[in-house]
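Q: My collaborator sent me two sequences in one message, no labels, and asked for predicted structures for both. Can we handle them in order? The first one she listed is below.
A: Yes, handling them in the order given. First sequence, followed by its structure tokens:
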Amino acid sequence: MRGQGSIYLRGEIYWLRFSWQGTEYRKSTKTSDLDEAKRRQSEYIQRLKNGTPTNLSRRDTILYIIQRENGPIKVGISANLKSRLRTLQNGNAERITVLRKYTMRDVEKAIHRMLRDSRLEGEWFAADSFSTVEQFFRWTG
């Protein structure tokens, strides 16, 4: 199964976990039968390789802010926050608390709200709104 990701049980349903073009994905096989899940995994991987639409649901990268008990804060990003927190807590005697977490979709929504008066259609905005986006990242960067 090397290079095909993995199959895991979530409740009674098997799910696929794999990376494609640098992004981690998880997808339900919608079956509780392991053999059927394996068949669907092979079919799904083949569709990806052929460029056939697959309705991927992407696992968002999370921007997180955590703090040790009464201590410093840490700002970081992770595709798997639960695993990252487990790793950080493992070598730390003080309890780590999540203060805030944002998905990249949250960042996108925030920028869209900032540009709402410049919206032309859908996710398209007037050309002069680029300076507002640049300002946002200068301020945050």
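Q: And the one she listed second?
A: Here it is, processed independently of the first:
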Amino acid sequence: MSAGLNIDWGDLDSYIGEYHFNCITGEVSIIGASDEMNEGLRSRSKTLSEEELREYLKDAVEFTNIKKTPVTSENYADYRKPTQPMPKHCYGTAYGQREQKKIEQRLKDYYLDHSMTKEELKKFFKDRCKDMRVVMAQERRTTGTDPEHNRQIILDAYETFRRANSVMANLACDKEGEKLARENGWKEGENKDWVYYNADFYYESEELRKIFQEAAGEIAEEWKCGEVDTSERDTDSLLSYSSSFHQVWKNGSENGARICSMIDMSEEPPEGFYLFFRTSMEKDAHVGSLQAGVGEKIKIREKITFDVFGIFDQHPQFYHLSDFLKNSDNDDSGFRKYAENFDIFTRYYGTVQMRK
């Protein structure tokens, strides 16, 4: 808050994070904040008396949970100088972690309920950038106008959205796969002994990734901080195994269920491609239920007997998905080629491979 300082406000965009009181309308707002953050502030301010509001704006701690930074200079230019460095990652701070949960929930709602349009998600991305810049300015980590700091804020947001997008797309894919799992004997609450892949979720996640890239570019242009290269945040630098839909899926199938492997994550599937595979114990045999196809057309439907412990020669523990394709099957959908990208095996085999 700038109480007691003699300031020529001029361009308000130069004062990111400061509190602005409109003497005509009586409304208070935070310069540079999203509508969501300002609505929260106004809602809070309506419950206060004039004296309480004045004190609230002076301290300005309740809305953003930020500790008050004492004013050490009567010169506003000095007062605006950062007193601490930017965090290594904006979403690693206490405020950032709360924002991360909000992002994850919003993307989860999108995939499971389609409760937001893609344009609304783009605005949501920009709002997260705006509010993070406000918080960084109020914590005196940045002036709010430093190009390098603003690029970090945008790229940290992109990385967080990209990661949540990959995870929540996989969550929705699994949710859809539960129907096939139940049809093949799995009961809700049991350990997940199946995998389900649907290319529709891959393409949906890639479309959202492009929307977040566009949003990052647009807000960088708005903030005049130069171009942002989102590709540098598409790698899995934090070892979260979530740089893409395929990476999350591969990690879950190989290290979670441990019964299926995707060979090349970079290969794009034919539209409509799907795969379901479950292993289950039936008396003395280890039986796998396999179904794969494109759209409504089922290309593979097999019951597979495995040698679960590798002690019988007649039943292997490992198959290529393409082993179950018929040579006479004419295919112009790309299914045959993409089927070569998957291997299926027993959980015992997968566990041994994981521990190597």
